[in-house]
Amino acid sequence: MQTKRIKEFPENFLWGASSASFQCEGAAHEDGKGLSVMDMRKQDPSICDFEVASDHYHRYKEDIALMKECGLKAYRFSIAWTRIFPEGNGEVNPRGVEFYNNLINEIVQAGITPIVTIYHFDYPQGLVDQYGGWTDRRSIDDYVNYAEFLFRTYGDRVKYWLTINEQDHVVHMPYRLGMSDENRREKERLGFLANHHMCVAAAKAIQKCHELVPDGKIGPATCFDMLYPTTNSPADALAWLDAMEIRNYYILDLNCKGEYNGTFRKYLEDRDMFPEVLDGDMECMKANRPDFLAFNYYASKSISACPLDDEHEIGDIEFQLLPSREAGVYQVVKNQNLNATLWGWEIDDIGLQSASRLLWERYRLPLLITENGFGNVEKWPEEGILEDDDRIDYLTRHLHAVKEAMNLGAEFIGFCCWSFMDLISGHSGFSKRYGLVYVNRTEHDLLDLERRKKKSYYWYKNVILNNGKDI
Ligand code: BGP
Question: How many domains would you assign to the chain?
Answer without folding.
Answer: 1
